[in-house]
Structures are given as structure tokens and as C-alpha cells.
Amino acid sequence: MSTKRIVALAAAGLCLWGALIGSAFAAEPAKPTTSWVYPLIPKFGAVHPRPDLPEQPDPKADYKVFVDVVSGNPDHTKPLESLDRLARLVNLMAYAKVPASHVHIVALIERQATPAVFRNAEYRAHFQVDNPNLEILHALKAAGVHLMVCSQALAGMDAADNDVSPDITVTLSALTDAVVYGQRGYSYMQL
């Protein structure tokens, strides 16, 4: 076979290959747009609906969850991601049509998350900005979440009970609360 013929066949093969690859990319379906809903708490805890999946919360069951909120955020101008995940838990239960009377969530805020419970004045004293967590905390309480803060963590930050948002209950200790609620049949979750 001549060199010209080999070059011509190779060029034709490359053109065919390019056309196949090009058509494969052109025929690729567009990615579906992800939808997000907020069944109970607006603006926080977005849920991506997936009714097609087999594991869903049972609306007839009674859920008791003790959530230990420990994760802070180095950007003190934004709400804690852990609080947004807590809102997602609430919204997932609402999306699954679990009645509010069957959802018992207690959230204890401690360790690096502790400043999230501060009133604006105390938060500003620490971080020179207003507390961006107050809105989500208020929404969580309105949705039925019992919010608490560890008094030991407050003491460790030299903060007083009156430095805490009125949406929050000051409690003795995260260490003892986890045990107390565990004995009451609450599942433990850490965020």
C-alpha cells in the first residue's frame, strides 16, 4: 500500500472518529435541573425530593432525635452549616409527611458551635458582626425543635445566661444531656 493511500485512510478514519465523538457529545442529554423544596422551614435546610427511593421516614412512626451540634464555622458572617443540616432534618421529616406530633428533636449546641446562640451584642463583642445564626435558630424553634446550649461551654467562653438568645434553653451539660435523652429513647446524632 502506498504512503499516500495510508495517509488518506488515516485522515478518513480520524474524520470518522471525530464525527462519532462529536455526535456522542451532541447527543448527550442535558443534565436535569436539581429542584429543592422547603416543606416546613423556609430559606433553610433545603430538601431534594426523591420519592422514588425505598428508604423513607414512616409517617406512622414516632421519631425522637437528640442532635449534638458541635461544628462551628470560621466565617462568623454566615450561619453554621450544622444548623442548616438540622433544618434539613426537620424539612425531610415534613417532606415525608411525618406529623409534627411524631417528630421530637432536641438540639444541644456546644463546643465550637456555642457562639451561634449569642444575642447580637455578645456575638459582636466576639466577632465584630451581628449573629447570622439567630434567624435559623428562631425558625428551628418555630418548627418545634427544642434548642439548648451547654452551660459548661458558656462558662468556658465567659458568657452568661443572659447573653443567650431567648429561643435557647441553658442546660447543665452536654455530657449529661446526651445520657439523659439517651435513657428517654432518643437516637443520637452529631452535626
Low-confidence stretches: none
Strand order of the largest sheet: 4-3-2-1-5
How far the N terminus sits from the C terminus, by CA atoms, comes to 70 Å
Order of helices and strands: HEHEHHEHEHE
Looking at how many chains there are and whether they match, the oligomeric state comes to single chain
Helix and strand composition category: alpha/beta
Please tally the β strands and state the result: 5
Mean pLDDT across the residues is 90
Structure description:
The protein is of the alpha/beta class. It is 38% helix and 14% strand. It contains six helices and five strands. Strands 4-3-2-1-5 form a five-stranded parallel beta sheet, with helices on both faces. Helix 2 (81-95) packs parallel to helix 4. The longest helix has 25 residues, at 3-27.
What distinguishing features does this structure have?
alpha/beta; five-stranded parallel sheet; 5 strands; 191 residues
Task: Outline the fold blueprint.
Elements: H1 3-27, E1 63-69, H2 81-95, E2 103-109, H3 120-127, H4 134-142, E3 146-150, H5 151-156, E4 169-171, H6 174-183, E5 187-190
Helix pairs in contact: 2-4
